[in-house]
Specification:
heterodimer, A: alpha/beta, Rossmann fold, six-stranded mixed sheet, 12 strands, B: 36% strand, disordered C terminus
Chain lengths: 256, 461
């Protein structure tokens, strides 16, 4: 049996005293793509944020093992160096930080971590220009400040572009589809599909089934009130589309 | 490049009588010398008006609304001795090399303690008719070019320091670009203090005249080889004719004990484009007054500024943008990065006169506090007498954005590096507005180095 990329066991977490995650269990193996679906407030984004290492969450129980390591003990930058990537639901605009400079710095941090020589500006530029094409992004994006003045769709594409550059072993896509029109959605999905590798894994978080027409997951999980209440294959997403979340939630999971 | 052999030291027109080096700012001791009598009458009367205005105003106090955040009392307490004799200053070309913008290809005029140093100055090839010389020389040789502008734009009515400069200035730079000509390389005016005595004072006076449809870039840098407190009180008048494009950058890096007061008064003509940058890195106390008069229709004026302070430094920027004609655009962008117990002050007044319709005035002041003890005072002021205008102002005060730091960290950039990147970016918002590429690139390096010095690596930010 292969080693899982990530194994989440009974993870519970709260924010400012309010419990958001109430025992999440999820194991993802190399080559797999998992989708987590759930209504607003179910804890989807909290799970993504905790995996990436955002401050402000209190882990009240459980553990997360990533490639044999205790993920929760690592700083966000250490997680990134180890191959964890979060495509943000709301990417931050950073005026004044040039996109190429930012990506080169990030890329070289990861190379340093892996004991590889850093790329110089010319080498990096050549490398990165290939990746820009993949997402149908204008090359001038590289000269612009990170996400600054980007449209919603450009920001989301930029997240996947960064993913293409940093080549994470485990990518979490937090509602990457939200706010995208159908054309942008196709481009983003195409990008994500191209980046699939048998030794990597992806976790796609989404509110709507629409994305899963383009990115076909191996497994679909329904998160409700801080727990995964149902898991299945890709057909589960279609079922959800028909019945809605209400039809999916077992009586036991509905809070009193 | 031609060395300025032909530019001999002209005798400054103010008092050169040997007199007490103890020159106190006690107003009763201020009197215009008889020797000014050899100056043109118009200048003499401007000096007298300046003196009388200073006599009436006195140095401002904290009770003065325009100076309420900046206490200049220490200036009054100093013994302010104007250097009136061109002593051998001992500044070599090699010593100059340590200062910024040395390598720029354009002309350079060097002033040591306010005195013109022709042996350190040089002129790059300039289009026929362009004048780049010291002001004292220009008063003697080009009076008809100087008279229409000198002392006409920097008002002595309300600003005691401008009044003082007008009464006592000895020299400075004169730049004249005739109609339709462009000076490609930036002209660098370098002011170096080598003050040995406490309170040594210089009153540099510059005049930049850009004719209709001309283009010029001017840098004024104020640096120091001194380790005592001294006082620089400069005034620069800029006149931009119709369609002229003028970029002006003042780079202030006086020593940490110095007092630096400066006035930049720009008179902008129809459809001109005037950009001024004020970069304040040095001095114990600095105050830059910028007065922009938008005197023609359809022009654009950008006032851009960056101040980095540490220890107990204070950097103050005060500006009045006077929209006198319709369809004018003015944008003010000032960012401050404040460490330790230092203080930043921003005071921006936008005046839209009756009839100045379709004015588009924007003002932003952002302050990044790197320490709990740093402070920033910001005071925007809009005075609008026209009804079809767009005026906005905004000010922010704060620390680095946690969400941005997390974003960078999530992409593998370590926390400390992420912080520095964001601080640099904050400065970059201002630096990016410098149009002259060579100047912008050098400024970027200078600011980066200074940020590293001002904010040493902290393990627990």
């Amino acid at each position: 049996m292969k080693e899982p990329i990530i194994s989440i066991k009974n993870l519970s977490a709260d924010v400012e005293g309010r419990q958001i995650l109430k025992g999440v269990n999820l194991t993802i193996y190399p080559g797999e793509m998992h989708a987590i679906m759930g209504p607003n407030g179910s804890g989807k984004s909290t799970l993504a944020a905790i995996l990436a290492g955002r401050d402000g969450y209190h882990i009240s129980g459980g553990e997360v093992t990533y490639c044999g390591q205790d993920l929760l003990a690592l700083d966000p930058e250490e997680r990134a160096c180890e191959g964890v990537f979060l495509a943000f639901q709301y990417p931050v605009e950073i005026p004044g930080v040039n996109s190429t400079y930012f990506l080169k710095t990030a890329y070289n941090e990861i190379r340093k971590h892996r004991g590889l020589p850093e790329l110089d500006a010319m080498e990096f530029l050549k490398f990165v220009k290939e990746k820009v094409k993949l997402l149908h992004l204008a090359e001038d994006l590289l000269q612009r400040p990170v996400n600054f003045g980007f449209s919603g769709g450009e920001k989301k594409r930029n997240e996947i572009f960064q993913m293409a550059v940093l080549e994470p072993k485990f990518a979490i896509l937090d509602e990457t589809d939200s706010g995208l029109d159908i054309d942008a959605l196709k481009i983003v999905s195409e990008g994500v599909n191209t980046l699939k590798r048998p030794d990597h894994a992806q976790l796609v978080i989404t509110h709507y089934q629409r994305l899963l027409n383009f990115i076909v997951p191996d497994f679909v999980h329904v998160l409700y009130d801080g727990r995964i209440v149902k898991s299945g294959g890709k057909e589960l997403a279609l079922e959800l589309e028909e019945t809605g979340y209400d039809g999916m939630i077992p009586a036991a999971a509905v809070p009193a | 490049m031609t060395p300025m052999n032909n530019m001999t030291e002209t005798k400054p027109n103010v008092d050169r009588e040997p007199r007490s080096t103890e020159f106190s700012l006690n107003r009763t001791e201020l009197a215009l010398s008889e020797k000014n009598a050899n100056e043109p009458a118009w200048l003499l009367s401007a000096r007298k008006a300046g003196f009388m205005s200073f006599d009436e105003l006195g140095l401002p106090t904290l009770q003065d609304e325009d100076w309420r955040f900046t206490n200049v009392a220490p200036i009054e307490k100093m013994t302010l001795a104007p250097v009136s004799k061109p002593a051998h200053h001992g500044v070599t070309e090699k010593a100059l090399g340590q200062f910024p913008f040395t390598a720029l290809a354009g002309s350079q005029l060097v002033f040591v303690n306010g005195q013109f140093a022709p042996e350190l100055s040089f002129l790059a090839p300039l289009p026929e008719g362009v004048k780049v010389m010291n002001l004292a020389a220009a008063l003697a040789t080009e009076p008809t070019l100087v008279e229409p502008h000198l002392c006409r734009h920097a008002s002595t009515d309300t600003n005691a320091f401008t009044a003082l400069n007008t009464a006592f200035f000895q020299d400075g730079a004169f730049i004249y670009v005739p109609v339709g000509l462009a000076v490609a390389e930036p002209i660098h005016l370098r002011f170096i203090s080598t003050a040995q005595d406490h309170g040594t004072t210089a009153h540099p006076r510059n005049l930049i005249v850009a004719g209709r449809e001309s283009r010029v870039t001017v840098i004024e840098s104020y640096v120091s080889l001194s380790d005592v407190p001294y006082f620089t009180n400069s005034v620069t008048e800029i006149v931009a004719g119709g369609n002229a494009v003028v970029e002006h950058l003042k780079y202030q890096d006086e020593n940490q004990q110095a007092f630096h007061i400066a006035t930049v008064a720009a008179h902008c003509g129809r459809a001109s484009k005037v950009v001024t940058h004020s970069i304040a890195l040095g001095a114990k106390l600095s105050r830059t007054n910028i007065y922009a008069t938008l005197a023609g229709e359809g022009l654009e004026c950008i006032l851009n500024g960056l101040y980095l302070t540490r220890a107990e430094q204070l950097a103050d920027h005060y500006m009045i943008v006077d929209h006198a004609q319709p369809h004018g655009a003015s944008h003010e962008y000032f960012n401050g990065i404040l460490a330790d117990k230092s203080k930043g002050v921003f005071h921006g007044r936008i005046l839209v006169r009756p009839g100045a319709q379709k004015t588009d005035a924007k003002q932003t002041n952002k302050n990044l506090l790197l320490s709990d003890h740093a402070t920033a005072d910001t005071k925007p002021q809009l005075e609008i007498y026209a009804d079809d205008v767009k005026c906005t102002h905004g000010a922010t005060l704060g620390q680095l954005d946690d969400e941005s730091i997390f974003y960078l960290r999530s992409r593998s950039i370590p926390r400390e590096k992420a912080r520095r990147m964001l601080i640099h970016a904050f400065a970059g918002e201002i630096i990016d507005r410098v149009r002259c590429v060579a100047v912008r690139e050098e400024l970027d390096r200078l600011v980066w180095d200074r940020l590293e010095q001002n904010q040493p690596i902290t393990t627990n930010p």
